[in-house]
Amino acid sequence: MTKPNRIDPADLLAVGDLLTDEERLIRDTVRRFADERIRPHVGEWFERGVFPARELAPELGALGVLGMHLDGYGCTGSTAVAYGVACMELEAADSGLRSFVSVQGSLAMRAIHAFGSEEQKQQWLPEMAAGRAIGCFGLTEPDFGSDPANMRTRARRKGSDWVLSGTKMWITNGSIADAAVIWAQTEEGVRGFVVPRGTKGFSANDVHGKLSLRASVTSELVLEDVQLPADAVLPGVTGLRGPLSSLNEARYGILWGTVGAARDCYTTALDYAKTRIQFDRPIAAFQLTQQKLVEMMLEVEKAYLVALRIGRLKDAGESVPAHISFGKLNNVRAALEIARSARTILGANGITTEYPVLRHANNLESVLTYEGTGEIHTLVLGQAITGEAAYH
């Protein structure tokens, strides 16, 4: 039996029909949570520059989205596509919400899961999966973002212990984290360390005055001769493969999340255009408005298809970093243009927190450059298609 012909303006190509029943259930469950728990409040959180992480973390844990793509230790072991559609619905509400989930699951939890000792996994992963503990990931520094190989944070041995000194910057969840995964240079290469909250010499200072990701906690981490026991180091990796492989997981969540932000801007503009009357007719009836809406719809659907294709490759074990760079570069860029175009349809109303589009646009300015700038992803793709590295 063929399905009846129908047009869903939010998904004209019916890309959602390509999802499995389980993936659609996860999508709808996370969307309902975002609609009921986040959307009524996120405009106010953004305006005030706050994010109630301690309150929301257990709820997100109960929802099953914290480390959902990891196996065991209280994690649900979902597919890459299932995790992707969850990120899509989280970021449709706000990039800060998806960032919290990505940092918790794809960065802090994933690093411990992939490279930690069994004791570290048992201590931290069940608590983080439940949202009873919050994690952060300290790689970026004030002077080194795209070039982590030259990080200045150092770890030196002191007997059987380690002593860490340095500064990390732009760290999501930094001041609220119960455990920070800190990457530092050692004599044998870059190593990761689990630094518990309250460790002597370890402090976090929130970044204020942000115009983007305001509903998100962003911090500077300061390590002043922080002494850690030998079992604080992540034993499973040495070198940049550790942090960069975790970043690739976070970038994967971004390429899905930005589809949600883009869709939210497009559907907001579409609904507004149908009800906003000018010259005795809805502005949706004007050609130039329809052109904007159609261009937005095309880019949303293309981004959705890109995300789904990369997700299927990932689930098949066939994805490579260039695929993730393709999705991150294309989908963030498309989402940002959609947000800007949607704002023009809303006119002056579009600059208020009553509507989400300028909030999304501001957030996407950060998403554009974090977890790899557009320039870096361009060079990753350039190397993939030419065989020549052009980073220097």
The CATH superfamily of the largest domain is identified as Butyryl-CoA Dehydrogenase, subunit A, domain 3
| Low-confidence runs | none
Question: What percentage of amino acids are in beta strands?
Answer: 15-25%
The average pLDDT score comes to 94
Straight-line distance between termini: 58 Å
Summarize the structure.
52% of the residues lie in helices and 16% in strands. The chain is α+β, with helices and mostly antiparallel strands and 392 residues long.
What does this structure look like?
Strand 10 (277-278) and strand 11 form a beta hairpin. Helix 3 (80-93) crosses helix 6, helix 4 packs antiparallel against helix 5 (118-129) and helix 7 packs antiparallel against helix 8 (321-346). The radius of gyration is 21 Å and the shape is globular. The mean pLDDT is 94. It is α+β, with helices and mostly antiparallel strands. The protein has helices at residues 21-48, 53-63, 80-93, 95-115, 118-129, 241-275, 287-315, 321-346, 357-369, 374-386; strands at 71-72, 75-76, 135-138, 154-158, 161-172, 179-186, 189-196, 202-206, 218-228, 277-278, 281-282. The chain has ten helices and eleven strands. The protein has a four-stranded antiparallel sheet, with helices on one face. A three-stranded mixed sheet has the order 3-6-7. A two-stranded antiparallel ribbon has the order 1-2. The chain folds into three domains: 15-129, Orthogonal Bundle (Butyryl-Coa Dehydrogenase, subunit A, domain 1); 135-232, Butyryl-CoA Dehydrogenase, subunit A, domain 2, CATH 2.40.110.10; 241-386, Butyryl-CoA Dehydrogenase, subunit A, domain 3, CATH 1.20.140. It starts with 20 loop residues before the first helix and ends in a 6-residue tail after the last helix. It holds the Pfam family Acyl-CoA_dh_N. Residues 20-131 form the Acyl-CoA dehydrogenase/oxidase N-terminal domain. Belongs to the acyl-CoA dehydrogenase family. Keywords: FAD, Flavoprotein, Oxidoreductase, Transit peptide. Its cofactor is FAD.
